[in-house]
Amino acid sequence: MFALVDAVAFYASAEKVFDPSIRKRPVVVLTNNDGCVCAVSPEARKLNVPKFEPYFKLRNFLQQHQVVIRSSNYELYADLSSRMMSVIGRFCDNQYIYSIDESFLQFTGFQSIINDWYAYGQEIRLAVWRETKLPVGVGFGITPTLSKAANHAAKKLAGYNGVAVIDDDHSANEILAKMSVTDVWGIGGRLGKKLNMMHIHTALDLKKQNPKHMRKQFSVVVERTVEELNGQVCLSWDDVKQAKQEIFSTRSFGERVTNIHDLKAALSTHCSIVAKKLRQQGSMTKRLVVFAHSSQHEGNFYKRSFLYDFPVPTSDSRVLANAVNEILPHIFAPGVRFYKAGIGAIELVSEQYMQEDLFSPTLDNKKLMGSIDSINKMFGKGTIKLASEQQTKTWEMKRAFLSPRYTTRWSDIPKIQC
Amino acid sequence: MYEQFYELKMKVIPIYAEAGISGFESPAAEYTELSLSLDELLITHPNATFIGVANGDSMQGVGIFDGDLLIVDRSETTTQGDIVVANYNGNFVCKIIDKQRKQLLSASAKHRPVSISDADEFQIEGVVTRSVRLHRKSRELLSCLL
Fold first, then answer.
1. B63 to chain A: closest CA residue
2. Model confidence over A224-262: pLDDT tens digits?
3. Is B110 a catalytic residue?
4. Region B110-137: what's the mean pLDDT?
5. Does the active-site annotation cover B99?
6. CA pseudo-torsion sign B67, B68, B69, B74
7. Closest Cα of chain B to A124: distance in Å?
């Protein structure tokens, strides 16, 4: 048996933990630089606040309905996430943390101990609520995909009260019939449209397909999904855990950028971030994509993006920054108010299997990068950085509605009236 | 064999530690991991515990003064007469809980008991298991005492 435990509107719920005055109020959380709405509390969902809509478009609406607005408080979320995960982890010996607010549990040999999965799920919910004041939903399923479906039912469908169990074909069909095919794990919007054209609308429709046929039509991933919906375990943590195939760093500017130096500084910072992530997972990149654009909501939309191929794969911040330097003149145009820029490392190779090139020796300096990483780890992010990275504050994130960092800063701990 | 070994063992050549040259190893080296941790002493359930700062004088009778640190454990079960932190109408308050009379009691003659009615928003957040007084002000905490 598998279980997927995840928090209800995690960011919004996290904002309520140390601020009892907003526990019952609608809350939305904004993304980096207060750009878009990224989390909507259940109370705000009732007002039909849409997710991923730019904040400036919703400002009046939110004000009218007295919705509480918060900037993303990552320090708080990270701390609450680790507390939540530890509490969940007490309920099973095999836990896999899938994201900041989602955790899979795999129960092997529990059949003789637990005879009521629903009750066990309620126990998990109660413990997490009691100890962290975060609401979670729990879905049990015979496969990871079915546990994800059960989790969807637990939170979104009426009558489940936060816990749903799929332990046989009958309970699977009952839940899958009420789910749209795009709510199935791994089925995105584009794939969903194709499936719709084949008259596959609900998750149950997908379950009834012939897996081999699906493999021919789409991919081995869809084949596995169909088999998982039919109760056959195909996914393992090792598949899920695979190193990332692409690493991006991108962010909108706190203020519009109009000169080439600021743009270069921002892109250099992204180089450092991407290179560090590459080194962390033991990868190197063969290809870099560099892009920048103005706001879609202003006139004269401008967007440029370029690819850069490295003769030898790299994970050196300086090599990436040099590539950006070469591309920069092609991307920048005077008069453009740049809203967002970023870089992406695509076509990653493992450091272990990297092939040297006889004619172009690597420019990477592993020792230097290793030292930078350990110094920054010891003394804090950005202690050592590229000189081309921005030193001033304009590029820092805009977080106008930031709540206190209740659990990570002494100056921010909650006040309690006596 | 045994005798040989015994003899061999007896031929001990004393080597004196020379401080500064060979580096005299601290006799306490094996015990370093036993150093005391306040966290360990004060926090029983780290995942369920948060730290807040007391604001006000209504709990002086139980030794909680303005500016004290409160260590609040959410996993503890509350029993009659516990010092708790509760969400009372959208505010965190620290009081003594009287479950039988459904009241929040202060530890000061100046403050009357508060009855909890059904109209109130009320939730117990956790039990105050410890409180810490900082007799000299801490620099880290200065800004939260203002």
1. A418
2. 999 999 999 987 766 655 556 788 888 888 788 999 999
3. no
4. 94
5. no
6. negative
7. 13
